[in-house]
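Troubleshooting log. The previous structure file for this entry was overwritten by mistake, so regenerating from the original sequence record. Sequence copied from the archived sheet and checked twice against the printout by T.R.
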Amino acid sequence: MNARKYTRLSGQAILELAIFGAIIIMLLGILLNYGLRYSLEQKVMMNTFREALQDTANSVTGGQGSITVIQDKHVPNPADPFGVGTVTPFASSSSVTRSYKLHETPDTYAELPRATFQIQDKKFSYKTAGFRDVDSASGLSKYEEVYGGSNVWAVGSGLRILDSCEGEIMSYDNCKRQCRMITDTDFCVKECNRGKLVGSSTDCTAVCAQEIETPWYCNSLDSVFNFAIATNKPKAMGVQSEYSKQTVVSNILRKQESAGKIATTDTIDWSDTTKRMILYNERVVSPSGAMQPGINIQSTPVETTVGETTTQECQDGVCQ
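Regenerated output below.
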């Protein structure tokens, strides 16, 4: 009777150990996976800031750096004997300005603000603004209201405008807002009143009633972003949100048998390839540094591969 009771208790203990042990191991694996993902994310964020800070050392570009980093990292699966898991993209953006000339505006094409995209170790840099010249200083207060006071200044008898919609990377929403402020008086007055400082004596109705030059993109904005509108995708340039992945796994098992001994060599070779696309409006630059108007959407394909080869050798069931 005692022997039977002992057997039942022993079997119950083994069953409980098997069930709860598996649960504990699973929870430990989840914890390790979460910790690894958090660590990789923090590393990408810190490296992004360092890259942006490094770009500010170039005084020729105005001492500013703006960069978006995308890193494809391998996150191992604790349940896989070879650690093969998933390749996950980690993204981070950082913008740093380090210059004693913050009150000044760009004078040359090289000083124009730019955005840099880094995918793995590949870098791509594009202008986010351009110069636009108008022949007359008439309507100065409305130009300043539309483009910002610090982005408009006198050049001879006319004006020079630092226009964010004249860059290679354009923002649909920002350009649409600027165009509406130029062509829609009521909208201009509304936006002017919203941004007016407390106690300001600015007459928004008088400012917005002025006639100013309408830029080329106001009549072509939908054509510029046709690559997104036609397919009902987000109207954004730069690295596109859609990408494709291809995973290839090759597993080879070799077995050698001899008298009283079995040796195996298990080799797994895997690779994960990600294909992305960068879209931008390539602009022709005149000798003076002014961007020439026009639609010239270009695409730059970027392909990155992450993978490794792992070998496991076993002898009589004991693996190294």
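The chain has a mean pLDDT of 85. Archived copy saved in two places this time.
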